[in-house]
Amino acid sequence: MSAYNLLMNHDEPIPVRASSGPKGIALLAANHQVPILWMALFGPADIRRMSLPDSEVGDIPTMMASTADALRRYAARKGALRRALDARHFDRIAEWERFIQTGLTKAYVQIDFEDFCLVGDLPAFEAELVTWLDGVEHMSGSGWNALCVQANLDNLKLSPYGMRGFGHEVDPWP
Is this structure's pTM higher than 0.90? Predict the structure, then answer.
């Protein structure tokens, strides 16, 4: 069973669902993982709640920030990311940096965890999300290690997906 997370870019000042939002807002996807470079756009204050009125789950977490703030946060972290990650991943980082400079054209960036939350253990995922954010903030410790493990960084065939995801409707990686 698939459980996609979606990196979205839109102009709504509140969290939106990819499944019911404007067409084309989901730019990238990841299956059963949350890419490290997506997480590097966000901080703990960016965890928001999103209602799923047609689900028994109720509210789920989402990550959302203004695109300008997310790009500033990433810029502040990118040197530390390169130091924390193996040189084998530098090409993926370069792809990501080109993508965010040209691909994030709307006012807000958001990660939609809807699929992920519907197939997994929601309280465990929410705790993990906080741990991963701490990891990407410090790029060390158990949160960083857990984020890197779920991204499959040791598997060079799978690690591009755990680093930056894949194109949702159009492949942005030449």
Answer: yes
